[in-house]
């Protein structure tokens, strides 16, 4: 059947088409209004948001809320932004390094005990973080790191899901290519870094994005490990603190939230392919 | 989902590599596994044993374990209060998972039609994925703030008196669940849309020629074909719901009257909240969470995954 006939078959009639747009339109208004409110509300004077419903259009636009959210002394956002970036990037790097090395040892080397060790990695995925948060908090506090950012990331540098994902990806690598490389005298580390990893870029990108989001969105751990002063806040705990202090001004809160959304919104708008393809490929197939 | 580890493939090292070569390869393998094993050993495996130990102890104000209390902390979990907490946790999970998967499915399905604007719709509907739990909670608190709430305003237009979303014990859990549904909808939409994009057009056409149309075609052909994506969405959403803390902490702080206190919130509350330091009881609750999580996974993989159709 030609493509032309096929696409004609797929084209619904006018009534179903109208219903489709109606349903999508209604769903969009309901589900996306909070997004509109976040993005637009941050630029509006507080008075516009004290109306019911909020006056999102036609008012004067202002950058004051952003300036106030960024500069208010109670919950400084600049260090929180730096902390969140640190947490996201370091956890990402940690997952990538530990998972690449472990995945290589599990797939390409005759490592003793590799089957039980792989099951051990898998089993750690089953442990909900909240089950072990108490002993981990006691342990990390006992290290006396004080206000060192390391305590924000220390428990999260290795991850069983990352090992699982990269092992699946490495297994797709054609065996003959690997054997040819070995015959040509290519050493393990050179093979890993110059041949294997470049060919597994989709899985690596997916893991990188996933890990970054894990760190960026983490809530429980920064909340309990940063208690005390505000210098160890990440943006997530800062948003909470800001809500408690600036409860009266929704516009400043929305500006603050917009700042926390910058990297994730960029990822969702421009990086959807990486977000889904990589790890559904690992987990769904 | 979890493929069985392959039988040792005996991928050859250097052809004809001798004994010393094999020893070197084994050592290199163990060396490469070390960073991952140390990280997970110190911060996942060892703390599990420590949680078991802590759950049988009292502790002083600094958190140092003191005398053994045997199974007293677990006995505290055999109360009607904790039963209600568990029931509330399951109710919350159901209130998140069912609509949290069905709503994105109902949006993703029409998006597969070849109509103008569908790509833009898909990107737009994915936007809630950008929100962390705390960002979503604060925005929705503003959305539901009595006096300015656009939601209440809309309900008022059709003559419905809006409830006190977060301060009415009968509504608070539903409200927090609804916000969680909203925040998982973006990711689930992407997952389900990716699954739907894989559906084979030829099979659909064959079905159409055989007279299967509309809903019947969707239920008996499309759903089985996207079952891996559906299963993935169900499993990840269950974990998100079971582990939700930010929404509860920010929107209701477990209240009113404990009506939104779930298992994970209770762990946080007993161990860290308001200068609490009941580490023993929190550890015991953490072990219950572990068991609940493993059982739910066992049910999902044992019952649901049998019906998943992998290609």
TrEMBL record, chain A:
CDD domains: TM_PBP2 (cd06261)
PROSITE patterns xref list: ABC_TM1 (PS50928)
Keywords: Cell membrane, Membrane, Transmembrane, Transmembrane helix, Transport
Location(s) in or outside the cell: Cell membrane
Signal peptide: none
Entry-linked SUPFAM superfamilies: MetI-like (SSF161098)
Name of a matching Pfam family: BPD_transp_1
Keyword Hydrolase recorded: no
InterPro entries: MetI-like, MetI-like_sf
Domain spans labelled ABC transmembrane type-1: 81-271
Gene3D superfamilies membership: MetI-like
Key word Kinase present: no
Membrane topology designation: Multi-pass membrane protein
Chief location of this protein within or outside the cell: membrane
Transmembrane regions: 21-44, 85-109, 116-138, 150-170, 191-213, 251-270
Gene Ontology CC: one annotated term: plasma membrane
Gene Ontology biological-process entries: transmembrane transport
Similarity comment: family membership: Belongs to the binding-protein-dependent transport system permease family.
PANTHER family in UniProt: ABC TRANSPORTER PERMEASE PROTEIN MG189-RELATED-RELATED, SN-GLYCEROL-3-PHOSPHATE TRANSPORT SYSTEM PERMEASE PROTEIN UGPE
Protein name in the entry: Sn-glycerol 3-phosphate transport system permease protein
Species whose genome carries this gene: Goodfellowiella coeruleoviolacea
Lineage: Bacteria, Bacillati, Actinomycetota, Actinomycetes, Pseudonocardiales
UniProtKB/TrEMBL annotation, chain B:
Signal peptide span: none
GO cellular component terms, A-Z: plasma membrane
Organism lineage: Bacteria, Bacillati, Actinomycetota, Actinomycetes, Pseudonocardiales
Protein name according to UniProt: Sn-glycerol 3-phosphate transport system permease protein
Intracellular or extracellular location(s): Cell membrane
Record PANTHER family: ABC TRANSPORTER PERMEASE PROTEIN, INNER MEMBRANE ABC TRANSPORTER PERMEASE PROTEIN YCJO
Keywords: Cell membrane, Membrane, Transmembrane, Transmembrane helix, Transport
PROSITE patterns documented for this protein: ABC_TM1
Similarity comment: Belongs to the binding-protein-dependent transport system permease family.
Biased segments, Pro residues type: 1-10
ABC transmembrane type-1 domain ranges (all copies): 86-300
Region (Disordered): 1-20
Annotated membrane topology: Multi-pass membrane protein
InterPro entries in alphabetical order: ABC_transporter_permease, MetI-like, MetI-like_sf
CDD domains: TM_PBP2
Keyword Transcription found: no
BP terms from Gene Ontology: transmembrane transport
Transmembrane segments: 27-49, 90-112, 124-143, 171-197, 218-242, 282-304
